[in-house]
Amino acid sequence: MENTVNANKRKMNAFTKRLTADNIFNYVNNALLIVLSLLMIYPIWYLFLSSVSDPIAFSESVYDNQFILIPQGFTFDYILEHVKNVDIWKAYGNTVLYTILGTAISLFITVTCAYVLSRRGLKIVKVFTIMVALTMWLKPGMIATYVNIDNFGMIGSIFGILIPFAVSGYNVILMKTYFEAIPQDIDECAQIDGASHFRILFNIYVPSSIPGLTTIGLFYAIDRWNGYFWAEQVLRDDDLYPLQVIVKKILAMAGGENSGNPFEGLVSAYALIIIAIIPMLILFPFIQKYFKKGVMVGSVK
């Protein structure tokens, strides 16, 4: 009887120690996550504060090395200035157009490529999979990429920024892993019923892979929305420039010789950046539930 009581006491002590260790881990983990969250949120908050601050008051705070947490001379003048600018909305429309078209093209090519690579029994699939994986490390330089775009006659055309950068090897491998998790029996039953590969892909594989499609679609959309370098190099017409090119040009002009206050251009650019990132900030919370599942697919394998 005494031995049983002692054994129960030892178990309770061990459980108490484990519970205490788990609590300490949870407290430390939560504290670190809060700190990391604040570090990631503050740059966006800083942009917002800068966009609604008076340039003179803002510059004085920066020169005094102040830690800015509130607007310095609150004003909406620069945001309203951009909202009233017709050219900004034209560039905004271009960005939306390139994002939608580019994401649709990227998803179509990625899905079809991943479907082929996921086919079981094809010997050449391994070779193509290795070739796709190599593109994640071996990439052509900027000059070679520009020459290829020029040789295909896409300089000055929106297709020059939509087609050459349509596919990511990482996203193809991610989608391939997702397709491989679908039971093969469903595929075989559809083939017996006479379904074509396109019907199998778009009626079975695509509806069963919404989390993965949402995840890679978000990757492509963010990349398209934030892209400015190749748009500036390839597009030759100011009417075709996306919003990010306009932001880059405003930032380049900020602090020029003709600027009365070097921070006025920065505040104006920050106000435009805030306008540019609003759609992604609104979109992300609605698809966040798919994000974790889509990224982690195949990780156990």
Ordered list of secondary-structure elements with their pairings:
Elements: H1 2-51, H2 55-63, H3 77-83, H4 86-117, H5 125-134, H6 142-151, H7 159-162, H8 169-180, H9 184-192, H10 197-205, H11 210-226, H12 229-234, H13 243-253, H14 262-296
Helix pairs in contact: 1-14, 2-14, 4-8, 4-11, 5-8, 8-11, 11-14, 13-14
Short key terms for the protein model shown above:
301 residues; globular
Describe this structure in words.
- The chain has 301 residues and is mainly α.
- The protein has 14 helices and no strands.
- The chain has helices at residues 2-51, 55-63, 77-83, 86-117, 125-134, 142-151, 159-162, 169-180, 184-192, 197-205, 210-226, 229-234, 243-253, 262-296.
- Helix 1 (2-51) runs antiparallel to helix 14, helix 5 packs antiparallel against helix 8 and helix 11 packs antiparallel against helix 14.
